[in-house]
Amino acid sequence: MSSNHKRPPASLIFIFGGSGDLNHRKLSPALFNLFIDGWMPEKFDIVGIGRRPYDNDSYRTHLFNGIRQFSRRKEEQSELWKDFSQKVTYLQMDAEKDEEYQKLAEIVKEKETAYGEHPNVIFYLAVAPQLVPGIVSKLGPLNICADTKCTRVVVEKPFGHDLDSALELNKLLASMFDEKQIYRIDHYLGKETVQNILALRFANALFEPIWNRNYIDHIQITAAETVGVEGRGDFYESSGALRDMVQNHILQVLCMVAMEAPVNFDADEIRNKKVDVLHAIRKIAKDEVHRNAVRGQYGPGWMKGQQVPGYRQEKNVARESGTDTFVAVKFHIDNWRWQDVPFYVRTGKRMNDKETIITIQFKAAPNYAFPPEAADTWRPNRLTISIAPEMDIRLRFQAKRPGQGVSLSPVDMIFSYKDAYTEQEPEAYETLLLDVMEGDATLFMREDQVAAAWRLIMPILESWQDRAPVDFPNYSPGSWGPEDAEALIARDGRNWVTLPAPHQE
Ligand SMILES: NC(=O)C1=CN([C@@H]2O[C@H](COP(=O)(O)OP(=O)(O)OC[C@H]3O[C@@H](n4cnc5c(N)ncnc54)[C@H](OP(=O)(O)O)[C@@H]3O)[C@@H](O)[C@H]2O)C=CC1
Ligand SMILES: O=C1O[C@H](COP(=O)(O)O)[C@@H](O)[C@H](O)[C@H]1O
């Protein structure tokens, strides 16, 4: 355990949804890893909340099983777990009943006395979105929340179902909490490689001068998954890929790639610069949607030798479902830096490979003196930022092949986290939970960002609601999505980039 850093102040963390999947797979492993790495406060307690009948012991066993299965640390940490788990308790409570909330106020009082100080009180809402407004409106009157310095509420995605519901939820939150107390989480922003975009762009003199329409041909963001909906059919039927991935993760990543340089790293400065990008993205008119967006749904088929069901055969999915499991969109940013540089984004489930990458495709070299037959590609300069499963950045440029005559082929200069650093990178949720305890909202979404992102995707959603898809399912598991997605980019004389073969094991 290292001790050369400042730990966050005393914290009392309530997890609504303490018996749920997110806590089991992500939050508890993250909190335990923070503990192992010496990042948890000297004084802390975690209270998991749910209706299931656990006692403290069975709850701790349930969480430890999750940690064993899902933590990035594969070695067993039984001794440290004993210490950590003493700080974890379970509170059986129905979050929809007003009278139960007094229990929370009592726990806060009890811990205040035990700590000898007022701790951060964090309410993490890891519950289905329809429960969030009810919980928020019951937390407000508890008065714990009156202390704007110490009390925080963390709201999981999806933040609203559409623009109206997001605005309504923002209004409700604002009536109970100060904006500084609200942490709208988007776990992509906690990923090391996503945070590194700002370091790459603004801590180097090398890239920024060419990071604009004069040198960049286009940008791509791909977030492809091999998994299907994994038993989440119920949730996914009311969501779809556009709401689940584009409205939040992909647009947030796009903002990191496209934003102007911040003058400092204050939370609001970064968020101001990001929201500027969202405001500058050209809104796609409803009657232009078919030219700029493609939706897809996977059918049954085979993936890596295994037979897999189609989306419509998944649990809790309608047999005639029109839900999108794949989306590709072409965006434009109407500002000085990005005019006429298309941003192609795509995401899908049951695709050929797990691959989250950003591709910055530079323009072709001017006055290309080499004979066309010397080169096997005419636009070789490309920067690829891999977010998952590999974490690396590769710069592709043209090189002369050894030998007589002139033959050119692209080569890659690679920075890989694995090779460059010995320390293991934290999981996104570790970074984000630590930020909440420290009161740093830089990596969380502000209300105007959420609303701006919904405004951009509403015309697409509305256009799709007006016209039921006639060709679903329209892509096979293990493919790169529907043919129309290829056409979307091919019409512009470009093609989707995937990682080179060694990545795709
Ligand atoms: N799972 C994941 O990987 C991810 C999830 N999310 C988001 O996190 C949130 C939670 O998802 P997930 O954990 O998968 O969902 P689950 O269905 O696994 O868990 C839901 C939780 O809510 C609790 N709950 C439901 N009703 C009540 C109630 N009336 N009173 C008290 N507790 C209640 C359940 O407890 P009990 O059954 O004991 O009552 C359970 O702990 C969702 O918004 C989801 O979109 C976001 C990113 C990834
Ligand atoms: O928020 C979500 O993200 C995951 C993908 O996250 P990643 O970190 O594995 O890229 C996605 O599977 C899920 O549907 C969505 O809700």
UniProtKB/TrEMBL annotation:
<dbReference type="InterPro" id="IPR019796">
    <property type="entry name" value="G6P_DH_AS"/>
</dbReference>
<dbReference type="GO" id="GO:0009051">
    <property type="term" value="P:pentose-phosphate shunt, oxidative branch"/>
</dbReference>
<feature type="domain" description="Glucose-6-phosphate dehydrogenase NAD-binding">
    <location>
        <begin position="15"/>
        <end position="196"/>
    </location>
</feature>
<dbReference type="GO" id="GO:0005829">
    <property type="term" value="C:cytosol"/>
</dbReference>
<feature type="binding site">
    <location>
        <position position="354"/>
    </location>
    <ligand>
        <name>substrate</name>
    </ligand>
</feature>
<feature type="binding site">
    <location>
        <position position="157"/>
    </location>
    <ligand>
        <name>NADP(+)</name>
    </ligand>
</feature>
<keyword id="KW-0560">Oxidoreductase</keyword>
<comment type="pathway">
    <text>Carbohydrate degradation; pentose phosphate pathway; D-ribulose 5-phosphate from D-glucose 6-phosphate (oxidative stage): step 1/3.</text>
</comment>
<feature type="binding site">
    <location>
        <position position="349"/>
    </location>
    <ligand>
        <name>substrate</name>
    </ligand>
</feature>
<keyword id="KW-0313">Glucose metabolism</keyword>
<comment type="function">
    <text>Catalyzes the oxidation of glucose 6-phosphate to 6-phosphogluconolactone.</text>
</comment>
<dbReference type="Pfam" id="PF02781">
    <property type="entry name" value="G6PD_C"/>
</dbReference>
<feature type="binding site">
    <location>
        <position position="187"/>
    </location>
    <ligand>
        <name>substrate</name>
    </ligand>
</feature>
<feature type="active site" description="Proton acceptor">
    <location>
        <position position="249"/>
    </location>
</feature>
<dbReference type="InterPro" id="IPR022675">
    <property type="entry name" value="G6P_DH_C"/>
</dbReference>
<feature type="domain" description="Glucose-6-phosphate dehydrogenase C-terminal">
    <location>
        <begin position="198"/>
        <end position="496"/>
    </location>
</feature>
<dbReference type="InterPro" id="IPR001282">
    <property type="entry name" value="G6P_DH"/>
</dbReference>
<keyword id="KW-0119">Carbohydrate metabolism</keyword>
<comment type="similarity">
    <text>Belongs to the glucose-6-phosphate dehydrogenase family.</text>
</comment>
<feature type="binding site">
    <location>
        <position position="244"/>
    </location>
    <ligand>
        <name>substrate</name>
    </ligand>
</feature>
<protein>
    <recommendedName>
        <fullName>Glucose-6-phosphate 1-dehydrogenase</fullName>
        <ecNumber>1.1.1.49</ecNumber>
    </recommendedName>
</protein>
<feature type="binding site">
    <location>
        <position position="51"/>
    </location>
    <ligand>
        <name>NADP(+)</name>
    </ligand>
</feature>
<dbReference type="GO" id="GO:0006006">
    <property type="term" value="P:glucose metabolic process"/>
</dbReference>
<dbReference type="InterPro" id="IPR036291">
    <property type="entry name" value="NAD(P)-bd_dom_sf"/>
</dbReference>
<dbReference type="GO" id="GO:0050661">
    <property type="term" value="F:NADP binding"/>
</dbReference>
<feature type="binding site">
    <location>
        <position position="225"/>
    </location>
    <ligand>
        <name>substrate</name>
    </ligand>
</feature>
<dbReference type="GO" id="GO:0004345">
    <property type="term" value="F:glucose-6-phosphate dehydrogenase activity"/>
</dbReference>
<dbReference type="InterPro" id="IPR022674">
    <property type="entry name" value="G6P_DH_NAD-bd"/>
</dbReference>
<keyword id="KW-0521">NADP</keyword>
<dbReference type="Pfam" id="PF00479">
    <property type="entry name" value="G6PD_N"/>
</dbReference>
<feature type="binding site">
    <location>
        <position position="191"/>
    </location>
    <ligand>
        <name>substrate</name>
    </ligand>
</feature>
